[in-house]
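quick one before i forget lol
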Amino acid sequence: MIQRCLAAVSIAISLAAIPMIAPAASASGAPRTSWGRPDLSGVWTNATLTRLERDPKLGDRPSLTPAEAAA
C-alpha cells in the first residue's frame, strides 16, 4: 500500500513539474522552427586535423615519450 502511495505521489510531482520545466527550455535563445523544435540547419563540417591512421614512424609503441609529446 505504501509503495502505491509513493508511486502516485511521485507521478503527481513529476506531472506538476512539467509546466515549470518547459518555459525554461524555450527561453534558451536558440533559433526555433515553426513547430517549436530547435533549428539545427546550417553549415556542418566533419573536417578534422586528427589523423585516422597511425603514423608509421611510431612503430609498435603505445604512446609517446614526454620529450616527443612536448615537441
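fyi The mean pLDDT is 79.
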